[in-house]
Amino acid sequence: MADPEPAARPAPDTNADPAPGPRSGSGSGSGSGSNKGPDTDTGAGSDAGSGPPSGPGPLTVPSMSAGPDFVLRPWEMSDLPLIREAARDPYIPLITTVPAPYSDQAAEAFVREQWERAATGTGYPFAIVRSRDRRPVGAIGLWLRDLPEGRASIGYWMVASGRGLGVARAALRTVTGWALRDLGIPRLQLFVEPWNAASARIAEDVGYRREGLLRGWQQVGDERRDMAVYALLNSDGPGDGRAVATD
Fold first, then answer.
1. pLDDT grade, residue 214 (50/70/90)?
2. pTM of the predicted model as reported, rounded to 2 decimal places
3. Which of 10, 57, 60, 160 has the most other CB atoms within 10 Å of its CB?
4. Which domain holds residue 155?
C-alpha cells in the first residue's frame, strides 16, 4: 500500500492517501450520525474542471468509474463491513486510522471522519466498490494539505478479498488522471515502504517515477520506517484516458 491518509501512514497493496471524506453533498450530515451517503455529483464542487481547489473549503466527492468492474464513490455508513475486514488486517490499521480492534461505534466514527475531511477541504476520500454487487473492497484518497505548494498526495489500501484483481491499479489510474487533468494539480506524490514491491509496481505502471528514499519518514506501529517517494507531474501526463464520471 501507499501512504493512505494525510499525516498518517501507508497501507499494503494500496497506494493511496485517502483524505477524510466530506459529507459529500449538501444533504448528508457528517457530524450528526446520519446514515446518508454523500451525494454523487460528478464534479469537485465549483472547482471541477476549472483547476485545483483554491484553498480549504467544502469539497464534493464525485463518483467515478474505475474501469468496467469498479466504481469510486463517497464513503457511506453501509461500508462498515469493509472497515471490519480492514481492521483484521495485520498492516492496514498500522498505517491508517482504521480502528482496531473493530467496533461498530468506532467504524461509524471513521466514516464520519471521512465526511469531515471533505467538508473541511482536506481532500477527497473514496471507497472502492465492485460494480457487480456493490461490495466495497478498499479505499483511495487524494489529499490536499500541500496544495498551496502545488502538490497533492494519493494513498490507498485494499482488503485481502479485493487484492490480485487489478483494483488498486485501476483506482490509482482513475484518481491520478482526474487530479492531473480535471483538477490541474501540478504534482502528485505517494509514499511506499521499500519492501512493498506490489505497490511500487502499481505506481510505476500508472506512470509514477521513484525519486528517492526518505529515511525514518513515518511512524508505523512502534517504529520509524523509511519510505520511497514516487511522483508524477502534470507535465508528464498519466498515459491513460480521462476519468469517466458516473451518475
1. very high
2. 0.77
3. 10
4. 45-245
- Tell me: pLDDT of 117 over 60: yes
CATH code at 95? 3.40.630.30
* Residue 11 within any structural domain of the chain: no
Total domains in the chain come to 1
Q: CA-CA distance, 74 to 61, in Å (whole number)? A: 6
Phi, psi of 101 (to 5 degrees): -70, 160
Dihedral sign computed on CA atoms, order 182, 151, 154, 122? negative
93 contacts: CB under 8 Å, gap ≥ 6:
86, 87, 99, 100
Who has greater pLDDT, 11 or 173? 173
Decide if pLDDT at 82 tops 60.
yes
pLDDT-based confidence at residue 165 (cuts at 50, 70, 90): confident
Q: Is residue 34 part of a domain?
A: no
The contacts of residue 166 (CB under 8 Å, 6+ apart) are 67
160 inside domain: yes
**Dist CA 234 CA 173 (whole Å):** 14
